[in-house]
Amino acid sequence: MLLLMGGKSSRMGQDKAQLLLGGQPFWKRIAQELSACGRVYLSVNQTQDGKALEAYPMIRDVVPDCGVMGGLYSAFQAIEEDLLFACACDMPFVNRQFVQWMLNRWEEEGRKGRQWDGIVVCGDDGKTYVTAALYHRRLQGKLEEQVRQRRLRMHTFVREEANILLLPMGEVTSFSRCFQNINTPEDYRRCL
């Protein structure tokens, strides 16, 4: 489980990971949900202070300012796990039931003899939800190449460069709230 916390939060104007919901910071709320399904790693940028992040292991970005792609690339360099569920720190409604559903779907695909590099949900509008998705270590070399060439658009990568199972949102309708991003102060007010 990888919690992506290294973003700049420029639209919010403050660190989104530290926003409170029910008296708890987003990051901690998400980490607790993810930890029900496996070990949680925090993906952080090179300047973040890790003292406030408690007992979760941190993975610092190997190459700064590479977004989600850089976080995944750094994680696969640092850990032993082959499969990661990656989640953004601005998605406070992600829950363990959705993560477990994704892991079960992964296993089901494997039993059918299908070998994907990841599973990503797509909205009806064509949007790919790359920060509530599964990724396999097989992507490590491709991620490295993308980072090296500064081709950092994760949405393009999952659609055109990798062997990703793209699931329509209709398959996960009961988990639709999990995909809610809190990017702006207005989003945060609505969330509260």
Protein architecture, described:
It is a single chain. The protein has 192 residues and is α/β, with parallel strands linked by helices. It has 6 helices and 9 strands. The strands form 2 sheets. The protein has a 7-stranded mixed β-sheet, with helices on both faces. Strands 2-3 form a two-stranded antiparallel sheet. Strand 2 and strand 3 form a beta hairpin. Helix 2 (67-78) packs across helix 4 (140-148). The model has no long low-confidence stretch (mean pLDDT 91).
Q: Would you report the number of β strands?
A: 9
Helix-strand string: EEEHEEHEHEEHHEH
| Secondary-structure content class | alpha/beta
Q: Describe the main β-sheet briefly.
A: 7 strands, mixed
Tally of helical runs: 6
Instruction: Specify Rg, calculated over alpha carbons.
Output: 16 Å
Unreliable stretches:
none
Oligomer: single chain
Q: Mean of the pLDDT scores?
A: 91
| Global geometry | globular
> What's the arrangement of strands in the largest beta sheet?
5-4-1-6-8-7-9
Distance between the termini: 26 Å
- Report strand %: 15-25%
- Please give the share of residues in helix: 25-40%
